[in-house]
Amino acid sequence: MEKFNSDVSHELKTPLTVIQGEIELILRQLHQPKEYEKALKTIQKQSKQIELIVKQLLLLTKYSKENIQKTFEECSLDSLLLNSVEKFESKLKEKNLHLQIDKIEPITIQANPILISAIFDNLIDNAIKYTPKEKNITISLYQNETINFIITDKGIGIEEKHLAKITQRFYRVDEARSKKIEGVGLGLSIVQNSVYLHGGKLNINSQLEKGTKVIVNF
Fold first, then answer.
1. Which residue, 178, 192, 197, 198, has fewest beta-carbon neighbours within 10 Å?
2. What GO cellular component is one of the record's annotations (predicted)?
């Protein structure tokens, strides 16, 4: 818990420091309108970062094995997945990425729709973030002995030594690389926790410079 509190403080301190610096700069002397606009955009961006951290922390702490069943309702996994895909259409276009739907079967289960959507959202978002322009991302959702969601990308991949740690809260594979990519290091923690609360399994297979394959089983 002490490390968690320290990590949260660190992640919140960075955007707050930027906001404070911009405000002090504005108040110090008169500026041109464009300079005010630039400062306000920076403040807005950092405020959104804080909002994202708070929302993701709430997702991690709100539900537990003791209360999760009370939040279950009938969920159409295929509909939730397609809704998630739709959310990221603009990001896919920005990078000229092709999201290929290999297979999506109609599947209905008792689950928490917020957490199921969080699983899909975070895994699709990660694939987009770490996949170079004009590459492919493939998703599939089907049922045999288990319910399976698989997402595969041709992205930058992850070294094997990091795979056991990447679901830890605020863990970043490479600080230099991570600074270039937006995020707070909570996405995979949310995925792992959400899968766990639904009695599922999360497997991440990755090779550096070749891509990543994530498998969720329920």
1. 178
2. plasma membrane
